[in-house]
């Protein structure tokens, strides 16, 4: 796609957004607020004499219909278990995925709240309890269509894409290739040494996808739900130095273990998944660079400074992979 080629989202005008909502029987008041989302397009739409709704237009050609419906079914299963999940609204025929003018979209209830304070140990205890319940249901059966978070998809394919599509500056290409070769080799060692059951997880469980209200969380945006070990949904709640992360994880697992057993050996995968996320994030930005919203929002990406800092960050991660895991239960 060249700069002059229209992006699919270019035709998602305010009128088309309203027409899509009204095609499902809603009467709007024509108020639209674009929310902070780049992978998909998400809007708050006002309704006549009703609470506003949130509408998500899925990025074309990213997920298949079967993959989106699995996301929806997982959210609905969790909601039926009275978990604080924002699940899509179903119509009278229990459909949750709709199509309008080439776009697949879903409608969600609006959920107020703010990002949780993750340095508050009481909050982490509550989050741990919720995630324990989510994972208990997530382990009851596998996905059939959703992907797995693993080295091949997040690590190997990410680095190959960046190199093959010329995103790495010539001055840093050798350093990047050498470093990522060593990093991928080290990640493969971790993957070979530690094999754990894969369960259905949120997949992107950072504080931006958790809304805190009335002393409790509400989990939103299951767009990246996938098969992965349980630790994938826990490590992103950690911050600070090693001592802080140890205290935080201990609190999370105290609540988590009330509802679902956690294998402490999975703590060996914290830095593994952190590294995969770093590699995948750069590739995600690169893959979306032809979407006009990305150069405007991520002006710092794809500069020589960015890649130099990214290489430094990856070097630190290579060292972190050789550090002992967090020892919550004494012996891992």
Oligomeric form: single chain
Across the major sheet, the strand order is: 1-2-3-5-4
CATH homologous superfamily annotation of the largest domain: Transferase(Phosphotransferase) domain 1
The N- to C-terminal Cα distance equals 49 Å
CATH top level of the largest domain is: Mainly Alpha
Mass-distribution shape: globular
Low-confidence stretches: none
CATH overall fold name of the largest domain:
Transferase(Phosphotransferase), domain 1
In words, what does this structure look like?
The chain is of the alpha+beta class and 332 residues long. It has two domains: 8-109, Phosphorylase Kinase, domain 1 (2-Layer Sandwich), CATH 3.30.200; 121-320, Transferase(Phosphotransferase), domain 1, CATH 1.10.510.10. It contains nine helices and nine strands. It has helices at residues 14-22, 65-80, 121-138, 151-164, 170-193, 242-256, 270-287, 293-297, 304-320; strands at residues 28-34, 41-47, 50-57, 98-100, 103-109, 199-201, 210-213, 216-219, 226-228. The strands form three sheets. The chain has a five-stranded antiparallel beta sheet with strand order 1-2-3-5-4, with helices on one face. Strand 7 and strand 8 form a beta hairpin. Helix 5 (170-193) packs parallel to helix 9 (304-320) and helix 7 (270-287) packs antiparallel against helix 9 (304-320). It is globular. The model has no long low-confidence stretch (mean pLDDT 95).
């Amino acid at each position: 796609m060249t700069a002059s080629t229209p992006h699919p989202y270019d035709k998602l005008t305010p009128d088309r957004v309203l027409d899509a909502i009204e095609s499902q029987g809603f009467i709007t008041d024509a108020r639209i607020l674009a929310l902070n989302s780049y992978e998909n397009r998400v809007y708050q739409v006002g309704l006549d004499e009703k609470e506003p709704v949130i509408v998500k237009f899925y990025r074309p050609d990213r997920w298949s219909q079967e993959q989106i419906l699995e996301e929806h079914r997982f959210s609905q299963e969790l909601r039926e278990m009275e978990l604080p999940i924002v699940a899509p609204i179903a119509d009278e025929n229990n459909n949750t995925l709709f199509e309008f003018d080439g776009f697949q979209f879903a409608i969600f209830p609006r959920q107020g709240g703010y990002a949780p304070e993750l340095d508050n140990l009481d909050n982490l205890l509550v989050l741990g309890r919720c995630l324990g319940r989510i994972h208990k249901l997530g382990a009851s059966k596998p996905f059939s269509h959703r992907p797995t978070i693993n080295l091949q998809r997040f690590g190997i394919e990410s680095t190959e894409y960046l190199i093959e599509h010329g995103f790495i500056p010539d001055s840093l290409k050798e350093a990047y290739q050498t470093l990522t070769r060593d990093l991928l080799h080290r990640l493969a060692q971790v993957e070979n040494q530690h094999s754990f059951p894969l369960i259905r997880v949120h997949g992107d469980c950072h504080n931006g996808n958790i809304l805190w209200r009335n002393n409790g969380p509400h989990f939103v945006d299951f767009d990246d739900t996938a098969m992965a070990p349980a630790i994938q949904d826990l490590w992103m709640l950690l911050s600070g130095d090693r001592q802080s992360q140890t205290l935080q994880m201990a609190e999370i697992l105290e609540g988590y273990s009330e509802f679902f057993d956690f294998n402490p050996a999975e703590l060996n995968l914290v830095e593994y998944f952190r590294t995969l996320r770093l590699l995948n994030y750069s590739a995600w930005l690169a893959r979306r660079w032809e979407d006009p919203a990305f150069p405007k929002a991520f002006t710092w990406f794809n500069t020589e400074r960015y890649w130099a800092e990214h290489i430094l960050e990856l070097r630190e991660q290579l060292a972190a992979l050789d550090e002992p895991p967090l020892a919550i239960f004494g012996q891992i």
